[in-house]
Specification:
The protein has about 170 residues and is mainly α. The protein is about 50% helix and about 5% strand. It contains seven helices and three strands, in the order H-H-E-E-E-H-H-H-H-H. It has helices at about 10-25, 30-35, 65-80, 100-115, 125-135, 140-150, 155-165, and strands spanning about 40, 45-50, 55-60. A three-stranded antiparallel β-sheet has the order 1-2-3, with no helix packed on it. Helix 1 (about 10-25) packs antiparallel against helix 3 (about 65-80) and helix 6 (about 140-150) packs across helix 7. The longest helix has 18 residues, at about 65-80. The radius of gyration is 16 Å and the shape is globular. The relative contact order is 0.16. The model has no long low-confidence stretch (mean pLDDT about 85).
Amino acid sequence: RLLDRIDTDTLLGARNRAIFEALYSCGIRVSELAGLNTADIDENGRTVRVLGKGSKERIVPIGQKAIGAIRVYRNRLREETGIDLDADGPVFLNKNRGRLSPRSIARILETICRQAGITVPVSPHSLRHSFATHMLDAGADLRVVQELLGHSSLSTTQKYTHVSID
């Protein structure tokens, strides 16, 4: 399994696992993940407040594994660097303690996949696509998936149904 190959015993490994888990669990855009602040994650309610395209805000569920991975990352960050994430600050930090960029997140994902021996291209958007396809395959209503993805048009979401049927 891909995620088993991520060494979560290191700070970077814990961060990278949390990034992967959050992208797939929530189906959010890479720019939305990069823009997440600590206060946007409600661990008890298992939801994330996302600021999407056009500054539209939406609430999406987040899986327990993703919450756990974020918690492990946060704890390791505190233990190894003394950094305690600010509520109004970014969840995912770069080496300069700033916000990770969407391009940096894409490179992290590429590295994870390369290390796991995956030869087909994998992008943050392909995780979003997988999220939607798996939701539809599990019987989720198309309109619910539309809301979770933050699509304003149902026709944008419908492209996922063709992949799901296949």
